[in-house]
Design a protein that fits this description.
Elements (H helix, E strand, L loop, with lengths): L13 H76 L2 H10 L10 H8 L8 H10 L2
Length: about 140
Amino acid sequence: MTRAPRPARLFADRRDFAREYLIVVLGVLTALLAQSAVEALSWRQKVSAAIQDMDQEVSTGNGPQAFARLSIHQCLSDRLTRLRTLTEQGDRASVVDAISAIQLPLRNYNSNAREAANSADITGHMPPDRNMSIASSTH
């Protein structure tokens, strides 16, 4: 009479279990490492593109506007000094006239690229010094 074969056990001993467990753990760790590397490369590309967009926006949109602000700085400074002097003298009518004489140019400092980068959480992945320099140039 032949004996019926015994059902195979999942793991013959602890060594087999440890080997299989190690294979699974190393496979998962390798996959996580690969995912992390791909994600880091993706963020690096996104940050680079966002910085280029913000630089382009600042140079073509805000750059000329900033130049206009610099060119009128002395004139506005002189008018504000005159306004301070009149205020200290207490001549209310002259103060009102001096205030109405100050006309600032209407400029919009574009920050669309920065707002897009903020909403996509790209600025959180930018180097802090670069992030601050762009933030200061768009406000």
